[in-house]
Amino acid sequence: MEKIFNRIVWFTGLVLIQVLIFNKICWLGVATPFVYVYFLLGMDRDEPPCAQLLWAFMLGLCVDVFSNMWGINAAACVLLAFVRPWLIRMFVSHEEYENFEPSMAVMGKGAFIFYILLAVSIHHAVLFLLDAFSLVYIAHVLLRILGSVLFTCIFVVCIDLIRHRQ
Hints:
By secondary structure, the chain is an all-alpha fold. The chain contains 8 helices and no strands. The protein is globular and about 45 Å long.
């Protein structure tokens, strides 16, 4: 019960922080941090796959409702939740994989940062390509993806360091 309560608090907190603070930040007109993805990236491995997809859909839908985005965040989050097990398997041995919560403390600095970069890149590519829904301005879209990936990764690593501080 405590685990579900903790998850709901993180869910609500990250959605509120994203909607009230980070959606207002647009560095150089291209980079916006999407810190709510930390909820998906840090989710326990023992959560059933259907529950992970449901959490991802609800997270994306909540951000969409408050950001007037029409399901784009929900689609990107569900795809991220779907590919996340394969991304984790790339960096973790089979023995460690069963009861596993991705974090810098558990995975190590290099593996965690690479995991975050890959996962956030997938999320942002889907998000911004669906948002543009055209390849006419592909250079601008790629610049938005790159800037937002770097900005998001910085904030996600900071959140993880704060959360798992000993």
